[in-house]
Every structure is written in structure tokens, then in C-alpha cells.
Amino acid sequence: MKQKIILIALLTGLITTAEAQNRKPAKAATPRPNIVLIMVDDMGYSDLGAFGSEISTPNLDKLATEGIRLREFYNNSICAPTRASLLTGQYQHKAGVGYFDVNLGLPAYQGYLNRESLTVGEVLRSGGYSTLLSGKWHVGRDSLAWPKQRGFDRFYGILGGASDYFDTKPLPFGNSPYPVTLLKDNIRQYPKDNSYYFTDEIGNNAVSFLDEQQQNTPGKPFFLYVAFTAPHWPLQALPEDIAKYKGKYDAGWDALREKRLARQRELGILTQNQTVAGHDPEVPYWDKLTYDEKQFWKAKMEVYAAMVDRMDQNVGKILAKLKELKQDENTLIVFLSDNGAQGGFNSNNQLGRGLVRNEGPVGTAGSFDYQEQNWAYLSNTPLRQYKNNFHEGGFGTSFIAWYPKQIKGGSIVKGTGHLIDLAPTFYELAGISYPATYNGVKANPLAGKSLLPVLFGQTGEVDRGEPIFWERAGNRAVRKGKWKIVSTYPSFKWELFDLENDRGETRNLADAQPDIVNALSAEYARWADRTGVVDYDRIKPGNDAIPGQAAARGRNGN
Description:
Blueprint: H1 2-22, E1 34-40, H2 58-66, E2 68-74, H3 79-88, H4 92-95, H5 120-126, E3 130-136, E4 154-158, E5 171-173, E6 176-178, E7 182-184, E8 187-188, H6 198-216, E9 222-227, H7 239-243, H8 252-267, H9 291-324, E10 331-337, H10 372-379, H11 392-395, E11 399-402, E12 411-418, H12 422-430, E13 437-438, E14 441-442, H13 452-455, E15 468-472, E16 475-480, E17 483-487, E18 495-498, H14 514-531, H15 536-539, H16 549-555
Parallel strand pairs: 1-9, 1-10, 2-12, 3-4, 3-9
Antiparallel strand pairs: 2-11, 4-7, 5-6, 7-8, 10-11, 13-14, 15-16, 16-17, 17-18
Helix pairs in contact: 6-9, 8-10
């Protein structure tokens, strides 16, 4: 009996061993990709080396050459409306930020994100992602609308539109000081004056959040949104960065613009058949300036370049941390700017801001200055106009996407993407279905299309099947195929441009093609009606402290 039991055990063992040998090993589940979204503030189309600049941006240039660049990608031309669309995948009015982060008394203009417009933080967190944000929020100052209350696990940064780079004192802005609220999660921060540089703090906190996330929840995918304030005013930079650009701008904006154009053609950013925006009549020729004027102007651009440089250095910190954590190969990185470089009056009281805190030379702590239109003309090369305008220089941004697993390095394509396309892109990549309801609230349907077919080389531009629309402070635009109509407040007359051949917007074809203007105008009216857009004159505030007000009256909304 004992021998029989032993024999049965041996036979059972042999069968089990044979089954184990024949059974294929279980395939390890593919980890879901991480997503890093990097946005800069008030940076022009050509201010990166990979888009033609002389500014040193090696880390972003690396992402560009190893990833994909889109020649055409659109934001909403000014801070808060851009962030509303970026964070929700909605047109800004549908999200509640149709004008700015101020309440103008209508749902589309309440000045903070409504609950029907789900943030990428809310959707990705509900789908199993860690959600991290370092930098600028600017879509709601009430505590119910703070990042932690709208889907982000961790937050470091400012609630409003800008801050000093060396302290949290109120900024000079219009007739009253502009408050600065700096938070770590939901706790107000009071750093000692001159104890930090804000761009570095944004980068440092982003890196710290990544470390914590990997230590506390290893294997969990993450979404990191890094919203730099650089190179937004005030122009302030670290001395060692400014020193790198001494003498770099002695040649002036005219000569440097020609160099950027040549570089853009060499890179393929500017195709050979494309037009270039003409000389801005409000920008003086460099060689007509006096010696003292040249010293004044070149100092500004030296600081501006230093700010972009330091931002890129912090992108380098984030890339190094991703590599250290062995997450770089499985991470999509997207980079863009919230609007074009800032134009407006070339005066010491641009947009109603007084220089009441100039306690030292431009660039130093306590100074308050801005790039201004002369240098913005260089930054937006080869495009026309500036921030807060719907010609291409106002809302055309450099765009980079990097994802070693899927994106072919070195490609440059047309793209024609918009902010509303980012949320659906992220959800498709993460394998998350956008919910019909969230916390009992019916969600607004997404307005955009996934960019993955473009990013992964399956097509050269987004196939959205309908136009892209814009409205802000009375400025309006529609883009459909190669055609674009645009009107600048207070005029209601449309201009028409063929952007396939004339992205410089040098030839207004409205009189020659009235049928196209009428058709696109009718589509705009239908979109405005369903999106909650109202006539700007009905809601126009009279507060010069709101960005764009003084300029809107004096210079058609720039």
C-alpha cells in the first residue's frame, strides 16, 4: 500500500511538471504611460532653439529632435482662457472662463471652472493616475476651485496670473495692488524675500512630487502638469543667467529676426512657400535708435532670454528625474505656450501697469518691467500680431511632443491642433473613458479630437470635421482647412486669409472671396450660440486692472 501511494505521488509530480513546462509564462501587463504637460507663459513662437531662436534651450531642443514638432498649434491667446481649455478639453466659455478669471455675471463668464467641465486631474485620477501640479493655476481663486479641489493630488504654485520671481508681495497692477497667493497643497506659503527664484521652485517641486509619487505608489502611472510663469512679466532673472546673454542682443530685433527666419527655413519650421508677417509699423527700426535707447532695449531682452534659459534648465531637472526613476521611456511629454509674446503700447504704462516697484535695474528683485512690443516682434517670428489678438502671433505656439515608445524622432508636421485636443489625447493614451457624469453632475462632452494619429505618424494634421473657433474680449476667429477669418474688436469686419500659403497673413482675401467669409461667419454664429458667447459690449468691464482693457480701447485689443 505504501509503495502504491509513492507511485501515485511520483506520477502526479511528473504530470504537474510536464504541464508547467508546456504552459507559457504569463505576459506581464504593460504599464500605462505617464504624461507630463509643460506650459510656459507669454513666450513667442520662435523663442526656442528648435523653433529658430538664439536662446539656449538644449533640453527642449532635445525633446524636439527626438520627438515631433507641430508647425500649427493654437491656444486661446491669453492666460486664463487658455488654461480653462487646456485643463478641461472645452472651449473656454463652456468651461466658465470666457473672458478671464473675473466674474462678469453670466455662466460662460463666471471666471472659474464650472463643475460640468471635468479637469484632466479629475478624469485621470478617477482612472487610476496620480495627479501632480507645479506652477500657475489661474482658473479660480475661491477655495472651492483650487487645484486640490479639482482633481490634483499635489499642488505647489500661485492661484493668480503672475507673481514676482523673488517674493510674494503684491504686484503693481492698475490702480490697486495685485495679490499673490502661493500655496503648497491647500496651505498658504510665506517664503522669505529673496530666498528663492520662482522658476526653480516650480521645477524643484515638480521633481519632489515625482520622487514622492514613486516612493509612495510605485508602479502607479502619473500625470504631471508643470505650468511655468516664465517668461511672463516682471522681467526678473538670476545674475548668472543674465550674464550669458550680455551682448547677444546688440544687433537688435531687425537683424536677429532675419537670423531666426533663416534658421526656421533651415529647420523646416517655415516652409519655402510660406509668407512672413510684414514689418510692424509700430516697431522702430533698430538702426534709427540712439545709443542710449539701444542700451535700454537690449537689457530687456537679455533678461527675457535668461528667463527662458532658466525655464529650460528646469525642464532638464525633470528629464533627469524621469530617467533616474526609469520612467522616461514610458512617458509622453507635451510642451507649449499659453499665448504669443506680449505686444501693446511701447510706453512706461503699458496695459495700465505702473512701474511703482522699480527698486533696481531691469531683471533684479523688486524691479517691474516687461518685454514690450519691439522684442515681441522678434519673439513671434514669423507670425503677425501679439498676445490677446487672433492673428497668428497671438495664439500660434511652438508645440513639442516626445514619447520614445511611439513618436518618431525629428518629424515636423502641420498638425493644426488646439488646446481642446489635449484632454482627449491624454484619455485615449491612458485608456480612460471620459465619464458622462462625475459626482452626480452631467459632464460637458469633449470638444476636441485626439492628437495621437498625428503624434504617432498616421496623419499630418487633425481630422476634426469642423472648424476651430475663438472669441475673447470681442476678438473673433474661425479656422477651417486652409481658410481663416478673423476680426479685431471693436471692428466687426472679417478678414480672410489662406493660411496654406499665407500664414504671415499678408493678403486679406475677404473682398475677393465673400462666399467663404459668409459661410464661416455663419458657422461662427452657430458655435457662439451653443457655447454661450455673448456680444462683448454687453459684458465689457471698465476695469483697467483686467488684462487687455486699456489696450483694447487704445489698440484694438492687443
